[in-house]
Structures are given as C-alpha cells and as structure tokens.
Write a structure and sequence with these properties.
Helix content is about 45%, strand content about 0%. The chain has about 80 residues and is mainly α.
C-alpha cells in the first residue's frame, strides 16, 4: 500500500532533482507538501479520508489563486504586484 506520505516523498525527490534545470513548478514547498501528506495519511489511518482523491498530489496553474502561493501568470513580476 502506498500512503500519501510515501507519494509526497517521491514528488519532493523528483522536484529537488529535476526542477532546478527543467522548472517543472514555479513555486512549491517541500514542507507544505509534507504537512498536507501527513494530514492525509492520518485521515486514511483513521478511516476518514476526505474523498477517494485525498492525498493525490496535484498542481495548479499559476494563473489560479492558490494560497499560500503567488499568482504570477507565468511571469516573475506579476507575482510581486
């Protein structure tokens, strides 16, 4: 069985290795990913997941507001407005 925490660690490892050269994501936080995954893992352990997709990693295009990340529309200056 793969837990959300295990999946998150794979995603983090991928991003740490490849994001610096390929820029897969413009803004991300390993700490935030780990916190969300730990909460999801705990919900599954308690038998109370939010949905069948609880703990599935996903990304949001940077033209959509998604706190705590900047909405930058693919540019460096838009996120600073």
């Amino acid at each position: 069985m793969v837990t959300p925490t295990m999946a998150a660690e794979r995603v983090i490892a991928f991003l740490e290795q490849r994001n610096p050269t390929n820029n897969w994501l413009s803004d991300w936080s390993a700490e935030h990913i780990r916190e969300a995954a730990a909460a999801s893992t705990a919900r599954y352990a308690a038998g109370k997941p939010l949905s069948v997709l609880d703990g599935v990693p996903f990304v949001v295009k940077d033209c959509i507001d998604a706190l705590p990340y900047e909405t930058s529309y693919g540019s460096r200056f838009m996120g600073k407005l």
